[in-house]
Amino acid sequence: MISVDEALAHLFSLVAPLDTEEVPLQQASGRVMSADAVARRDQPPFAASAMDGYAVASDAVRPGARFTVIGEAAAGHGFGGEVGKDQAVRIFTGAPVPAGTDRVVIQEDVIRDGDSITLADALDDNAYVRPAGGDFRVGDRMEAPRILGPADIALLASMNIPAVTVRRKPRVALISTGDELVMPGDKPGPDQIIASNTFGLKAMLDGIGAEARILPIARDTRASLIAAFDLATGSDLVITIGGASVGDHDLVGDVAAELGMERAFYKVRMRPGKPLMAGRMGEAAMIGLPGNPVSAMVCGKVFVAPMIRAMLGLGAERAPLLTARLAHDLPQGGPREHYMRARLDDGVIAPDTRQDSSLLSVLAGANALMIRPVDDAPRKAGDLIEYLPL
Amino acid sequence: MISVDEALAHLFSLVAPLDTEEVPLQQASGRVMSADAVARRDQPPFAASAMDGYAVASDAVRPGARFTVIGEAAAGHGFGGEVGKDQAVRIFTGAPVPAGTDRVVIQEDVIRDGDSITLADALDDNAYVRPAGGDFRVGDRMEAPRILGPADIALLASMNIPAVTVRRKPRVALISTGDELVMPGDKPGPDQIIASNTFGLKAMLDGIGAEARILPIARDTRASLIAAFDLATGSDLVITIGGASVGDHDLVGDVAAELGMERAFYKVRMRPGKPLMAGRMGEAAMIGLPGNPVSAMVCGKVFVAPMIRAMLGLGAERAPLLTARLAHDLPQGGPREHYMRARLDDGVIAPDTRQDSSLLSVLAGANALMIRPVDDAPRKAGDLIEYLPL
């Protein structure tokens, strides 16, 4: 058996960052920017007022000082002239600070009488001027790779970048295999169950930036599997679920090998999800996941999601683990790395009492996979333990 | 001035849960399920093998016992007959456990010789049988409202639910106002800047389940604002950004009032984002946000996101706050609830040294809004403090 890290190293060797495409900024949220974005201007492009008030020369400011108001500066409409020492310009937030002035006295600190203003007795020290380039300057960079969030999108807009270069979305084909499966909405026979893994995995992988397709269920025949692989043509990653164990029914591996896959089987020292199959088939990477619903979803999180991130140019690395405090003591752990379905509430984590890998209801009630390393020593309540958020 | 909670109470009074629609399961991830889903079957629908091995009667199991193999049960293809005490059936994971058997001896514990098997000397206690209905039973419910995640989607599939009832996505119109703005990609005049708020807000609101549209920038004229509001027709929520302060340029409120909005102005005891305008205009709720980029995004998080959640039927509640430990001491806080741009790393939070509400670069570098309550006492490094994740 190999470790989770060794299995991941094999899987990363099957994929590479995909090519890139340009998307309009409005469609870039959640995408992975693949080339640095470079600011095309200073922000603000001019010294700008931070408040509504009156722009004056700072060395003329003192309690009770009087100024003549000679004009107005609003956002988008600056004051064109030069302002003298005893003069002021009515100014609004975001407007350029006029030549000859370097301070904004807020309107609350001013008494206005016709064209003249008198400053109050108590003035604060703040100039209320945002310097030109205070947010960013021409040439400042937002560095790639970066998963673009809402604030990034706003910042890119502000830099005057209407379109960004991002990694193409990995195209993923999902193939459930097995005579026991029917699609949701169909009527199962007495020995059959409903296909669920492809639905859960599609939601998971689409959510991290892939474009997953659920293919028709492949039956346990050569012809049906060949037809399914054929439909997967054009994908970057082909995922089969079920049929990859070492049992007598390992048709998936045989057919994939026939179709040219250089395959490898991995027994991974983990729970759930021991058996994996992986290889390359033509232009695509292929991975075979176990058919147990929870195993498939855990392997999706532990193995497939990092492959997707690698294809998106985010590096070939295990998903970063977080830590939380244990709710209660745990006995000695087992010989395999255990991904336990757990509830995390306010920094305290408790594994569910039911860890059978067939229980989707337990997985749906969990919000974290708590990880016990191989041969983990007994743990005490309050100990820090690692987890993956779900 | 009113508190953030008082402002939210006003805003919640403007919205209600939207009507519902049915979507196929493949498109339901991230949507808000609005009616309980009820399992249409037991899972597993029969007692099923948890391993590859041999199904036998448990009371015939002892070290060295011999059985005659009379058939095979695979997933999707059960064994039809009855199994006697000295008989066994070859069984694979997921197959129905045949009548007359209640235990699976794993293949590693069996020596097979033609049609007969002999059990090993050391056997574990596990029956390796998953009871019928062990995951869920007919009539078991997934309760609404619920934001559907990948494991929920898998569980719904398994329950044989091909489509789910969800809230319609709130339609949001985003209107930037101001003569100082141009769209990204356009060439700004000397006193102009690039519109960024609508782009950041669209990404934020789409990300929590809305369907936001960026309308053309409204200029500081009646005609331009009327045209923008006209384009917003059919929206559930109209958001204007800028032009809502109490200054001389409050055209937005005047035009909205002309168009029938019962408006209210709120000065909220918070930083950034003091001024808000809100009301109802025809079929839509309307909210006017401050034009400063960081203020607009913070108000999006603190006010608009909870309105969206209320429209999605998730309740009229403030976003739940999380807690982290302060990285360093903080002096006495101010008279307004302060949403500070901060970095959270491994449970420790540190506010950025630059908190000016114009700095998008600081917001894009932050991953949390750290919250200091009104008149917050000085804090020590290591104290717990509340935050909103970004």
TrEMBL record, chains A, B:
InterPro entries: MoaB/Mog-like_dom_sf (IPR036425), MoaB/Mog_dom (IPR001453), MoeA-like (IPR038987), MoeA_C_domain_IV (IPR005111), MoeA_C_domain_IV_sf (IPR036688), MoeA_linker/N (IPR005110), MoeA_linker/N_sf (IPR036135). Pathway: Cofactor biosynthesis; molybdopterin biosynthesis. One of its GO terms (biological process) is Mo-molybdopterin cofactor biosynthetic process. GO terms for cellular component: cytosol. Residues 173-310 form the MoaB/Mog domain. Its EC number is 2.10.1.1. It is an enzyme of class 2 (transferase). It holds the Pfam family MoeA_C. Its cofactor is Mg(2+). It catalyses: adenylyl-molybdopterin + molybdate = Mo-molybdopterin + AMP + H(+). Keywords: Magnesium, Metal-binding, Molybdenum, Molybdenum cofactor biosynthesis, Transferase. GO terms for molecular function: metal ion binding; molybdopterin molybdotransferase activity. Transmembrane segments: none annotated. Belongs to the MoeA family. Catalyzes the insertion of molybdate into adenylated molybdopterin with the concomitant release of AMP. This is Molybdopterin molybdenumtransferase. It comes from Roseovarius litoreus. The lineage of its organism: Bacteria, Pseudomonadati, Pseudomonadota, Alphaproteobacteria, Rhodobacterales.
